[in-house]
Amino acid sequence: MTEATTDGTTDSNDVRIERDGAIATVTIDRPNALNALSPAVLTSLAEAFESLAAEGPAVRGVLLVGEGGRAFVAGADIRELAGFTPEAGEATALLGHRLAALIEALPAPVIACVDGFALGGGLELALACDFIYATDASGFGQPEVKLGLIPGFGGTVRLPRAVGLARAKELIYTGRRIGIDEAVDIGLVVRRFPDRESLLAGARETLDLVATNAAPAVGLAKRVLVAATGTPTEAASALEVEGFRDAFRTDDMHEGVAAFLEKREPSFTGK
Fold first, then answer.
1. Cα separations (Å) of 187 from 95, 106, 159, 203?
2. What does the CA dihedral 37, 39, 43, 48 come to, rounded to 10 degrees?
3. What angle do CA 64, 195, 130 make, to 5 degrees?
4. Crossing angle, helix 251-261 and helix 215-228, to 10 degrees?
5. Which of 62-66, 79-83, 230-234 has the lowest mean pLDDT?
6. Four-point Cα dihedral 189, 194, 198, 203, nearest 10
7. Alpha-carbon gap, residue 22 to 195, rounded angstroms
8. What domain of life is recorded for the organism (predicted)?
């Protein structure tokens, strides 16, 4: 939750949604504040993902980006944090966790497109997405301890899942930043790109590929993957069996199997 300072002002224009067919782009547009996550911005982001969820299978994928090129999100808004009481800190953390839960609950995949810094709350926001794509100019870190804080938007939960417990401890305890090479090496970043243009094109290409598949199946797979991560094998297996069962309730499952047997391309409806 770190690294950015602002004059404390924000408005609904700080977050915008753009649509290109079935693909949505959610942009955090506070470049002068390095896209800092104030409580107002967290609320606006939550509202954005709630509106996308309400569209159902009409949304097949989401790109989450930060405006400006210097930062995806450089962290929480430090000027606001400076005046927080413990109760205000708790309320802000709950906003961050609510946003992360909405991203994970969205049936469509969400790609964090990182171009620049993803620090503190910015990295936590990226970790809530299905995976992270990043440019060569990107940097990552959880430097909260340098401010006497700890990650508050899910970093202690999701970072170990992404890179392993020992690496997550090392990054959180030291607060050090890592570059794109190390981020790829430890599995934090799935794909790297030379610049922002190729990053967005590559992410869009991935979502276009996802969109050729059955939307209910993708949503069920995401539901199981999110819920099963970190749970004991027996419980995780039960979640998979439940998801597999639910797939048989969908029209797209029957269409996909019929198309395979008839040696034709399926015509999925999202039902």
1. 27, 23, 11, 17
2. -10
3. 30
4. 120
5. 79-83
6. 0
7. 24
8. Bacteria
Distance CA 59, CA 42 (A): 21
For 12-210, the fitting CATH number among 3.90.1570.10, 3.40.30.10, 3.90.226.10, 3.20.20.140 is: 3.90.226.10
Which one, of 76, 68, 79, lies nearest residue 31 by Cα? 68
Considering only CA atoms, which of 118, 149, 102 is closest in space to residue 35?
118
Q: Which of 80, 110, 82, 107 is nearest to 95 (CA)?
A: 80
Q: What's the chain's length in residues?
A: 271
CA-to-CA dists, residue 230 to 130, 157, 224, angstroms: 15, 10, 12
Please write the tens of the pLDDT for every residue from 164-221: 999 999 999 999 999 999 999 999 999 999 999 999 999 999 999 999 999 999 999 9
The DSSP letter of residue 56 is G
Q: What is the pLDDT of residues 19-69, one digit of tens each?
A: 999 999 999 999 999 999 999 999 999 999 999 999 999 999 999 999 988
Other beta carbons within 10 Å of 217: 17
Which are the catalytic amino acids? 124, 144
Instruction: Please name the amino acid found at residue 260.
Output: F
Radius of gyration of the chain (CA): 19
Going from N- to C-terminal start, the domains of the chain cover 12-210, 215-261
Would the pTM of this model clear 0.70, i.e. be above it? yes
